[in-house]
Write a structure and sequence with these properties.
The protein has six helices and no strands. It is mostly helical and 179 residues long. It has one domain: Four Helix Bundle (Hemerythrin (Met), subunit A) (Up-down Bundle), CATH 1.20.120. The radius of gyration is 19 Å and the shape is globular. Helices cover 72% and strands 0% of the residues. Helix 2 runs antiparallel to helix 3 (51-80) and helix 3 (51-80) packs antiparallel against helix 4.
Length: 179
């Protein structure tokens, strides 16, 4: 998941990408990261106790995987062509679509993690994914508990809105999945 952190360079108009080769390498890296994410999300879907969440995860992960394959193919084709603005825009557009799909996938994974996961097999990768989801869930529950306990009330007795955002799966990813 952390490899997706490099993707904004690709999306921000190539600020950090100087050559065609760098652009294509970045696109391939984003596509590979999408494939890696799909593998991890399938583990969550397989072990989710809620069948609706599991089905939704499988749908969004299929979109992510399709877009990853599309980006990988486009970057391979563009590697053999001369550099042009339209080919760069096509790569950037597909990378942006992939990152939107990844965001949707992570939100669906958060919902599935909140519903709960089945006891896992002894597969090391499944155990690591489950531990990661449980850690995020604990942080979210602690955040919610703090929200209910520490908030001041306004003159109507309503709790004031928090300025702190709740923790996300994507926010924890750099700690666990460094490239």
């Amino acid at each position: 998941m952390a490899r997706l952190r490099g993707a904004p360079f690709l999306i921000l108009g190539g600020k950090g990408v100087q050559t065609k080769e760098q652009l294509i390498a970045s696109a391939r890296k984003v596509a590979t990261s999408g494939q890696d994410l799909a593998r991890l999300i399938r583990i969550i879907a397989k072990n989710c106790i809620d069948p609706r969440c599991s089905q939704e995860l499988l749908c969004v992960v299929e979109q992510t995987q399709t877009m990853s394959n599309q980006l990988r193919i486009i970057s391979s084709v563009k590697a053999s062509l001369a550099r042009s603005k339209s080919s760069e825009e096509l790569l950037l557009g597909n990378a942006q679509q992939l990152l939107r799909a990844v965001s949707k996938t992570v939100r669906a994974a958060e919902a599935a993690s909140l519903r709960g996961l089945r006891p896992l097999s002894s597969d090391a990768e499944e155990l690591e994914v489950a531990a990661f989801c449980m850690q995020w869930r604990q942080k979210l529950l602690q955040h919610r508990l703090q929200e209910t306990c520490d908030r001041d009330c306004d003159e109507l007795g309503l709790r004031k809105a928090s300025t702190r955002a709740p923790p996300t799966l994507a926010g924890l990813a750099p700690e666990h999945y460094e490239s």
